[in-house]
């Protein structure tokens, strides 16, 4: 959602496809549950299951999953922006340094050259722009960005959960309720 006083941007979310938000949410929720359960054994099995799922999507389905992950980033940052505004805080100042700090502690997932892209997507979403369209300005997704994109979405969902009073299912419920409302509005 762009602010009423700002000019329309080609990166405005109204120009972006939402993608397969349900599939992206399923992947992110699965990752969150593994993190909260402290499950390291199942991590290999879970990764295999996610890999099989994404392989079954085909190229178009995979693009829809990527778009869905970007939509999740946008929706989480939108919720965080509203929560920050309620406390006269800036979402960029509140969220981006914390997540970038976490990314820097995870060098196997976030190579140093990927962190600016992931931070840029957070800033784009935090300022009301589509992370998908913002990223598209710089060319096609690279394979090196796939795990960091997923991990960024998981980190952001976990941040939402912490802000919501350490409610481990809040981020998932937030999106599920938004999807349900969208379905009701279409009916």
Please describe the topology of this protein.
Blueprint lengths: L20 H17 L3 H46 L4 H14 L10 H12 L4 H6 L9 H18 L6 H17 L1
Q: How many extended strands?
A: 0
Into how many domains do the coordinates divide? Answer: 1
Q: Element order, helices and strands?
A: HHHHHHH
**N- and C-termini, Cα separation:** 23 Å
> Per DSSP, what share of the residues sits in E-state strands of 2 or more residues?
under 5%
The number of distinct helices, counting runs of at least 4 residues, comes to: 7
Could you say which structural class the secondary elements and strand pairing correspond to?
Answer: mainly alpha
**Percent helix:** 55-70%
Low-confidence region ranges: none
Quick description:
By secondary structure, this protein is mainly alpha-helical.
Describe the structure.
It is a single chain. The protein has 187 residues and is mainly α. It has one domain. It contains seven helices and no strands.
Please give a handful of descriptors for the protein shown.
globular, mainly alpha, 7 helices
